[in-house]
Amino acid sequence: MYIQDMNILIINGPNLNLLGRREPAIYGAHSFDDYFTGLKAQMQTIRLEYFQSNHEGALLDKLHEAGFTADGIVLNAGALTHTSIALADAISAIPAPVVEVHISNVHARESFRHHSYIAAVCEGSIVGLGLEGYRLAVEWLSRRHHKASKLEG
Ligand code: DQA
């Protein structure tokens, strides 16, 4: 029996449902579902949830829904990172801390991937470390949450 004392949501945007099959030389050979199963097993004290959508509006709705109750959100917005002011506004609108993750090193790729509309409104970004970036983001959010709880208590 273990206590799950915090809620963290991982959100993946467009095309990330194809992980494992999509350009494996760039994004690796593992599906996100397999990775997520392993992550949950490693992090049993955290209530981890996962949401993926290819639709910008569905991602906005999820941020609005979870953003007032989650203790942290890990967001890989896919290509919407480079286009969506609406996602940036949604992140600004919610109190939950959001960490931006990219599997590939976007700075070493095409120039249109170098700019992120969401970076400035996220707590920070993890870029180019593969799927491990999600685990690092969850660990950081968990440490941040515990530090904040200690200060409050
Ligand atoms: C990505 C990088 C984006 O530029 C791209 O559009 C994606 C995936 C990544 O995780 O490396 O869909 O967010």
What is the element layout, followed by pairings?
Elements: E1 6-12, H1 24-27, H2 32-42, E2 46-52, H3 56-66, E3 72-76, H4 85-93, E4 98-102, E5 124-127, H5 132-152
Parallel strand pairs: 1-2, 1-3, 3-4, 4-5
Helix pairs in contact: 3-4
The protein binds 1,3,4-trihydroxy-5-OXO-cyclohexanecarboxylic acid.
The count of domains is 1
| Biggest sheet strand line-up | 2-1-3-4-5
Q: How would you describe the shape? A: globular
Q: pLDDT under 50 segments (min length 5)?
A: none
Please write the string of helix (H) and strand (E) elements. Answer: EHHEHEHEEH
Distance between the termini: 25 Å
Architecture, CATH level 2?
Answer: 3-Layer(aba) Sandwich
Helix content: 25-40%
Query: What's the β-strand tally?
Result: 5
How can the largest sheet be summarized? 5 strands, parallel
Helical stretch tally: 5
Q: Structural class of the helices, strands and pairings? A: alpha/beta
Q: What is the beta-strand fraction?
A: 15-25%
* Rg over C-alpha atoms, rounded to the nearest angstrom: 15 Å
Average per-residue pLDDT, rounded, comes to 95
CATH H-level superfamily title: Dehydroquinase, class II
List of distinct ligands in this structure: 1,3,4-trihydroxy-5-OXO-cyclohexanecarboxylic acid
What fold name stands as the CATH topology?
A: Rossmann fold
Q: CATH top level? A: Alpha Beta
